[in-house]
Design a protein that fits this description.
Strand content: 5-15%
Distance between the termini: 20 Å
CATH topology: Rossmann fold
CATH architecture: 3-Layer(aba) Sandwich
Largest sheet: 6 strands, parallel
CATH superfamily: NAD(P)-binding Rossmann-like Domain
Order of helices and strands: HEEEHEHEHEHHEHEHHH
Number of domains: 1
Radius of gyration: 18 Å
CATH class: Alpha Beta
Shape: globular
Helix content: 40-55%
Length: 291
Amino acid sequence: MAASAGARGAGQREGERIVGGLDGKVAVVLGASRGIGRGIAQELGAAGATVYAAGRSLQATPGHFGSLTETTDWIAANGGTGIPVRCDAMVDADVAALFARVEAEQGTVDVLVNSVFNSPEFGQSIGTRFWELPLDIWRDVFDVGTRTAYVASYYAAPLLLAAGKGALIVNVSGRAASRYRYNVAYGVGKAALDKMTRDMAHELEPEGIAVVSIWPNVTRTEHMDAARAADPDALAELDTFETPRYSGRAVVALATNPDLMRRTGTSPWVAELAAAYGVVDEHGREHPLPE
């Protein structure tokens, strides 16, 4: 059973979420315009953090799902502070500029979330053998999903160190790190991300800074909702999937836990964190730990 909110630090429980647990903290979320990154940014903001929501889609545009301003508008509507920042995570200079801005405006970073992934393009590669895919799949998965986390962590490190003990890096990974899933490039990228998590955790542990990979299960994204809207018979199990904000609530619980360092270097399922901390999704649902 989860500890009470008081045992985790500042903040009060509202149903099965922590409100105010991150008051005065600063979070940076890369990949915050849609999907899991958006859900994490929303819940960090609702918990009181000032959230820099970074990604390529600043404004909503026809034919595209989600935008940074939609994410930060949601945060504002729920009593938080969200700052949209256009940043192409594949451009190192953009990432450097993002953290230079955060340093100038805030001085520190308490939570960094790396959730950059090229989901629309990747979906077309699922189930295709490596020699039948274009070589660009490596860039789409490894560079976009893994190298960007390294670059962001590199530029964030001085600000995390300035925040001191209790700061946190979260990398959004998945079960493909340990077993075959989708295709070869995807598995290699996730395995590298988890290895990077463990090695960064080793180097940051003396500073009291945690690094954790999280493994969401199949998550209900905007693309899935669009598929359901186009075909009501599609994705019959959609309502049972995890939600992006479920991942977000697990990250908030992790970030507000005074025993955070016990998790550093690990790769828990989102459902594992949720069970440990008493978290449910925004619909009040618990989700089973995947086999």
